[in-house]
Amino acid sequence: MNNQNDLYRLINGVGIPCIGFGTWQTPEGDVAVKSVEHAIKSGYHHIDTAQVYGNEEGVGKGIRMGVIDSGLKREDIFVTTKIWNDKHSYDLVKSSFDESLKKLGMDYVDLLLIHWPNPIYFRDHWEEANAETWRAMEELYEEGKIRAIGISNFRQHHIEELLKTAKIKPMVNQIRLCPGDTQDELVKYCKDLGMVIEAYSPMGTGKIFDVPEMKEIAAKYNKSVAQICVRFSLQMGFLPLPKSVTPERIEENIKVFDFELEEKDVQLIAGLKGCVGYATDPDTGNF
Length: 287
Hints:
The chain is an alpha/beta fold. It has a single domain, classed as Alpha-Beta Barrel (TIM Barrel). It has ten helices and ten strands. It has helices at 30-41, 56-70, 90-104, 126-142, 156-163, 184-192, 212-221, 225-235, 247-253, 263-270; strands at 7-9, 15-17, 21-22, 46-48, 78-83, 111-114, 149-152, 172-176, 196-200, 239-240. 47% of the residues are buried.
């Protein structure tokens, strides 16, 4: 990947920019609008949100403003949202997706994901709930309201169960991937199925900035720890989704295409096991 708008290619041929702008924990309203607008002006063409983030309206407005400011069109921006845990039924997917479109101010999204595979609301029949959720998403895809469909936080056994009924294979799995938490077996399994792997929390929700080894590597390359994390994610073959609401950080996090980490440093970073904790177990989370 040589610049922020180089594309990964999904199994249906749709291109997805290799770095995205995350909006988890970004407050609705002015903060969401301004951060997304600034992200697009800074060169991000890929914006990630979710129903549960509560900021789809602000994200949509920020996209519209950013597109106008940058002389772009809606189709130049790849937009993702996600079905929340209490919406895992055919009818609820359809109704909540319509609500997401209204909030975003769009007539389609580029990617729709199932946010978690085994929410507490459906824990005694998550397999059936995911099958019905996916069936609704397949229909929305076939109707042209979604350009791609995928999953998030799914582990191998969740994917195997989904594939028993799916007509369309998941095109993306968005999972927590950061230094020391690289989920190697799951990543290989998903890639073997043709999925693009998106990395949320590529900086370990901020804990990474206190890791001495990361500070040393950042100094070696004369880059920030955040830039090292994003570059590491790209070199691992992931699609990172860095998040910030600070203009300077938003700009900094995408300036990662003018250097390359030595392989020994990639391995060192990958080997910092547990330095920022590990991904939540989707089968035991209380949400």
